[in-house]
UniProtKB/TrEMBL annotation:
GO-annotated cellular components: Atg12-Atg5-Atg16 complex; autophagosome membrane; phagophore assembly site membrane
Gene encoding the protein: LOC495838
CDD domains noted in UniProt: WD40
Any one GO molecular function term: protein-membrane adaptor activity
Organism: Xenopus laevis
Transmembrane feature ranges: none
Name of this protein: LOC495838 protein
Length: 322
C-alpha cells in the first residue's frame, strides 16, 4: 500500500475529553504505610473510585481502600511468580491487569480477587501491559524487544511486533499504541495496520509514558532526568520539565498527569516528590521528607483529591490537597 494511505500520527491524538475538575496539588502527607515486602514498582487508582492497587517485588498486587486520610488493606492478588512491574484497571474498574518479571501478564477480577487469565509468550520480563480502549484486547511490552497484542476472548496472542529495543512502558489511544524504549525512542504504532507510524528520539532511555485526559499530549520521562510533553497533533516536544534535584531513579520510574491534565508529578531517586504546572512550565511543589529511597511510581486519584507515591524501600505515602 502507498505511504500516503498510512494514518498520520495525528491519529495518535484523541478527541475524547475528560470531565473538567479543578485539581489542586497536594499540600501535605497524611498517611505512610508499608505497602509490600520489599520494593514497590507500581501504583494505580481504580477509575472513578477510591480503590487503590499497588504492585511489588514480593510478587503480589495489593488492593487498598482510601478512606478519609488512610489506606486500609483489602486483599492480595496472587499468582505471579516474580515481581510485578506494572498494573492497570480496565475502564470499568472490574478487572486488574499486571505485568510481571516472570515473562507473563495476568488478569484478575477485582471483586473476588480471582486470577482469570495468564498471558504467556514473551521471552523476557514484561515491563508494561495495558488494556486497549475496547477492553477486549491487551498490549504488552517486554525486555525481549517485542510488543504483543492479545485477544481476551480467545486468550491468545494475535500479533507479535518486533520493536528492536526493550520496551519500558506503553500507553494507548483508540488508534495508536505508543511505546517507550531503552534505545531512547518513543514508537507510535497504528493498531489497524500494525505498523510504526513514526518514531521520536529523546536524549535518554524512556522510562514512562502517560496521556492527558484529552489524549492530545504525551508525557514522557527519560534517564537524562528530563520530563517532556509532546504535542501529538503538532508532532513536537511542547514542554520540558526538570529541577536541580530531580533524578530519574530507574528504567521504570513512572510519571503522571493530574486528572485534569494541568499538573505533572514524578518522584526522584533520592525520595523527593515533584509537581510541575503544565500551563506555566514551572515547578509547583516538592516534598522531601517522607521517602528515604527512590520513588518508583505515583498515582493521582480520579477525583484529584489524593496522590499516592511508592518507593524502592517498601513504602507508600498518601498525600492530600487539604
Amino acid at each position: 500500500r502507498s505511504l500516503n494511505s498510512f494514518p498520520t500520527s495525528h491519529d495518535c491524538a484523541d478527541s475524547q475529553a475528560a470531565g473538567n475538575r479543578e485539581v489542586r496539588v497536594p499540600a501535605t502527607a497524611v498517611y505512610s504505610f508499608d505497602a509490600h515486602d520489599g520494593e514497590v514498582n507500581a501504583v494505580r487508582f481504580s477509575p472513578g473510585s477510591r480503590l487503590l492497587a499497588t504492585g511489588g517485588m514480593d510478587r503480589r498486587v495489593k488492593l487498598w481502600d482510601v478512606i478519609g486520610n488512610k489506606c486500609e488493606a483489602k486483599g492480595s492478588l496472587t499468582g505471579s511468580n516474580a515481581g510485578i512491574t506494572s498494573i492497570e484497571f480496565d475502564s470499568a474498574g472490574s478487572y486488574l491487569l499486571a505485568a510481571s518479571n516472570d515473562f507473563a501478564s495476568r488478569i484478575w477480577t477485582v471483586d473476588d480477587y480471582r486470577l482469570r487469565h495468564t498471558l504467556t509468550g514473551h521471552s523476557g520480563k514484561v515491563l508494561s501491559a495495558k488494556f486497549l480502549l475496547d477492553n477486549a484486547r491487551i498490549v504488552s511490552g517486554s525486555h525481549d524487544r517485542t510488543l504483543k497484542l492479545w485477544d481476551l476472548r480467545s486468550k491468545v496472542c494475535i500479533k507479535t511486533v518486533f520493536a528492536g529495543s526493550s520496551c519500558n512502558d506503553i500507553i494507548c489511544t483508540e488508534q495508536c499504541v505508543m511505546s517507550g524504549h531503552f534505545d531512547k525512542k518513543i514508537r507510535f504504532w497504528d493498531i489497524r495496520t500494525e505498523c510504526i507510524v513514526r518514531e521520536l528520539e529523546l536524549q535518554g532511555r524512556i522510562t514512562a509514558l502517560d496521556l492527558n485526559p484529552e489524549r492530545t499530549q504525551l508525557l514522557s520521562c527519560s534517564r537524562d532526568d528530563l520530563i517532556k510533553i509532546t504535542d501529538l497533533r503538532a508532532n513536537a516536544v511542547q514542554q520540558t520539565f526538570s529541577a536541580p534535584g530531580f533524578k530519574c531513579g530507574s528504567d521504570w520510574t513512572r510519571v503522571i498527569f493530574s486528572p485534569d491534565g494541568n499538573y505533572v508529578s514524578a518522584g526522584s531517586a533520592e525520595g523527593t516528590l515533584y509537581f510541575w504546572n503544565v500551563l506555566t512550565g514551572k515547578m509547583e511543589r516538592m516534598f522531601s521528607k517522607q521517602h528515604s529511597s527512590s520513588i518508583n511510581a505515583v498515582a493521582w486519584s480520579p477525583s484529584g483529591t489524593h496522590v499516592v507515591s511508592v518507593d524502592r524501600g517498601s513504602r507508600g505515602v498518601l498525600w492530600s490537597d487539604f
